[in-house]
Amino acid sequence: MTLQHFNSLNQHIQYRNLLLNGVCLTDRDIDDTCILLFQLDHFYVEVFFDKHSDEILRSRSFESTDELGPYLERMNILNI
Q1: Beta bridge partners of residue 56, listed in sequence order
Q2: How far is residue 22 from each of residues 32, 38, 78, 79, measured CA to CA in Å?
Q3: What phi and psi values does residue 11 have, to the nearest 5 degrees?
Q4: At 73, is the pLDDT very low, low, confident or very high (cuts 50, 70, 90)?
Q5: Which of 22, 41, 44, 58 is least surrounded, with the fewest CB atoms within 10 Å of its CB?
Q6: What percent of the chain is modeled with pLDDT above 70?
Q7: What 3-state DSSP class applies to 75?
Q8: HSE-CB for 55 with a 13 A CA cutoff
Q9: Contact predicate 64/45, CB 8 Å
Q10: 3-class state of residue 12 by DSSP
């Protein structure tokens, strides 16, 4: 699946694809939001959750590894 194809799907099907075919790589917190990072084929998807209600707030998909900076700062790549 390409990023463009993924983005053309409705939100429910996007999340189903993430759960069935994606790999959850890591997470991070910003204030009251938990962000899960998934890899799906050759792109990444962030899913933003409200920490208190567990409600999905939004998602963001991207291909550039430049966007992984906030996650890479927290990872110990020596243990991967």
Answers
A1: 49
A2: 24, 6, 23, 21
A3: -60, -40
A4: confident
A5: 58
A6: 92
A7: coil
A8: 4
A9: no
A10: helix
Q: Which residue has the tokens 């963001």?
A: 60
47 touches 66 (CB < 8 A): no
Q: Is the CB of residue 74 less than 8 Å from the CB of residue 28?
A: yes
- What are the tokens at 58? 């939004």
pLDDT score of 77:
60
State the pTM of this model. Answer: 0.87
- Architecture category of domain 3-79 in CATH: Roll (3.10)
The residue count of the chain comes to: 80
Give the domain ranges of the chain. 3-79
